[in-house]
Design a protein that fits this description.
Helix content is 12%, strand content 48%. It has 116 residues and is mainly beta. It has one domain: C-type lysozyme inhibitor (Lipocalin, Beta Barrel). A hairpin with a 2-residue loop joins strand 2 (49-56) and strand 3 (59-64). The N and C termini lie far apart (54 Å).
Length: 116
């Protein structure tokens, strides 16, 4: 009997007949723009770049490669946008991009983990 179960298990694995589990994902929501409590989120972007953002009271401190930009919230129809004089942290749902002088320097950024 044990031999039959072993053979059955091998056949199921070989043919891919086992039920696949969906990948575990953790939803990390951005805080509301006017939330006064600082909330940090690390994002993983294309090219394995990491962007860390701390949101608090209509502001975001965006850090990448040792550089930090302090940006103000700008309401838009859908998604979010934080800007300073030449840079922006912009996105929608769980996808974001960091642009410097209009050029993307980090894109397809997705929440990775909470930092605060």
């Amino acid at each position: 009997m044990t031999k039959r179960l072993s053979i059955l298990a091998i056949l199921l694995l070989a043919c891919g007949c086992t039920k696949e589990q969906p990948p575990a994902t953790t939803v990390i929501p951005r805080p509301a723009p006017d939330d006064p409590t600082p909330s940090g989120i690390a994002y993983l972007c294309d090219g394995r770049k990491e962007v860390k953002v701390v949101y608090a009271k209509n502001r975001a401190s965006v850090t990448m490669d040792g550089r930090t930009w302090r940006m103000e919230y700008q309401p838009i129809g859908a998604g979010f946008r934080y800007v300073d004089t030449t840079n922006e942290w912009v996105g929608r749902d769980d996808l974001a991009a960091l642009r410097e002088s209009g050029k993307p320097i980090a894109f397809n950024c997705r929440p990775l983990r909470r930092t605060t």
